[in-house]
Amino acid sequence: MKIIYTLLFCFLFVSITNSQERFLTKNGAITFFSAAAMEDIKADNNQVLSIIDASSGKMAISILMKSFMFEKALMQEHFNENYVESDKFPKATFKGDIVNFESIKDTDTKVTVKGTMTIHGISKEIIIDATMNRTDKQITAIGEFYLAVADFNIEIPAVVSDNIAKKIKVNFEFNHKPYKK
Length: 181
Prior knowledge:
This protein has a single domain (25-179), classed as Lipocalin, CATH 2.40.128.110. The protein is built from two helices and nine strands. The protein has helices spanning 2-20, 73-83; strands at residues 22-35, 40-53, 58-64, 69-70, 91-98, 109-119, 122-134, 139-148, 167-178. It has an eight-stranded antiparallel barrel. The longest helix is centred in the N-terminal third of the chain and has 19 residues, at 2-20. The relative contact order is 0.19.
């Protein structure tokens, strides 16, 4: 009987430890901005799922493409139907490592995140500079980077090529809380 209690205690301890090491947000914010000669295009998505494993410094992000909201409904329709083909490729994902995760303190700390971004079914290695802040109750991550549309096999018809930038500016802000099962 003593062995069963010991095993049960060990199982509960491992479960509690693992859940405390993960930080999650389902309301992360991503904004992308295209500055072009003909027009500027901006879209916001506040339903981004992001998780950080504090024991390893690994980070994973999942973005529903149809959750991007545009100023004009026609821009949103073209984005989903013509460019990123949201029905065929509903999510963009990122999986990577926060290189200097151990250095993150309770004040803003510059970090580098290396990983694989998958958009439109195409995966590409990227490096992102971010500012992170870590306490026992939260891990925040803020940053910006640029993505080249052509890197993800997103074709822009020649007739509208002046309307969309070749490189899109992406801003993000995530406020991760401890994950509780």
